[in-house]
Amino acid sequence: MALPGVHTDRGELRVHESLEELSTDLVDYIAELSEASVKERGVFAIALSGGSLIGLMGKLCEAPYSKTVDWAKWYIFWADERVVAKNHADSNYKLAKDGLLSKVPIVPSHVHSINDSLSAEEAADEYGFVIRQLVKTRMVSVSDISDCPKFDLILLGMGTDGHVASLFPDHSVLEEKEEWVTFITDSPKPPPERITFTLPVINSASNVAVVVTGESKAEAVHLAIDDVGADDCCPSLPSRLVQPTKGQLVWFLDKPAASKLKSLEFSSE
Ligand SMILES: O=C1O[C@H](COP(=O)(O)O)[C@@H](O)[C@H](O)[C@H]1O
Question: Domain 6-247+255-267, CATH 3.40.50.1360 — does that match?
Fold first, then answer.
């Protein structure tokens, strides 16, 4: 059984007993947001990440979601991508295509993957341009407090070091305020060259979900969420900087990932 969602200053925490249960809750959440967005705007603009997240979304390819989700209205983006060929094992596009996109009736022209024939800098520029065009036509909504795109949902994973998308701790990329999409060439986690949404874009989304599993990430989850002087100890922990300005933030955690969370102890007192 899932523990009930706990509402904190750092968003809603949904802690699950098993990956099976987390995965069911995650796909229900995505399907509900898709339905609400299609009803309100006629489309659903969703940004994916790579890593363990995609496997946890696998139930979307099965009944009932395979039939009930309005796939034709989905516009797919990536919160980050590695600068490798699209058929490379490290490609976030390939991961999503093999695990999800090839199994549901997404419209191919709605899949906005990152150009793999360009340099990191060129690919980031081009991707930013593509998103600008889609904001102009409101396929992607726009923030009412900045000119940033307002994705209906951005799905993030988190590394053991607290990175989200390709925003790594203590990296100058965390300071980027102007660009929507940028690039790095020195990722501490291979491959070194990556394209990433910037924090202003992530924090302008209507909904952001961070999906984290496994005990190896428990310390980073604690530092990202708890209110125990973490602002002093790790001001540039990317996962802690995920703070949607007006949108909703939900953390999908399994029990091992949540095992060092103080926020949960306080909530059960
Ligand atoms: O390198 C990356 O890592 C993170 C976390 O991946 P995980 O396998 O530990 O869940 C991922 O969210 C990001 O998209 C990816 O490029």
Answer: yes
For residue 156, give the ligand 1 atom closest to its CA. Answer: 12
Cα 31 to the chain's mean position, in Å?
Answer: 15
Tokens of 223: 């530092």
Task: Enumerate the β-bridge partners of residue 153.
Answer: 46
Number of Cβ atoms within 10 Å of the Cβ of 250: 20
What separation in Å is there between the alpha carbon of 238 and the centre of ligand 1?
13
Bridge partners (DSSP) listed for residue 74: 44
Mutate to test the pocket of ligand 1, among 57, 166, 219, 254 (most ligand atoms within 8 A of CB): 166
pLDDT at residue 234, rounded to an integer:
72
Spacing, Cα 161 to ligand 1 middle (Å): 11
- What is the residue extent of each domain of the chain? 6-247+255-267
pTM for the complete prediction? 0.96
User: Which spans in the chain are helix H?
Assistant: 19-41, 53-56, 65-68, 92-99, 120-136, 199-202, 218-225, 230-233, 262-267
ipTM of the complex: 0.98
Are the CB atoms for 237 and 222 separated by under 8 Å?
no
Mean pLDDT, rounded, for 9-33: 97
* CB-CB contact of 184 with 120 (8 Å): yes
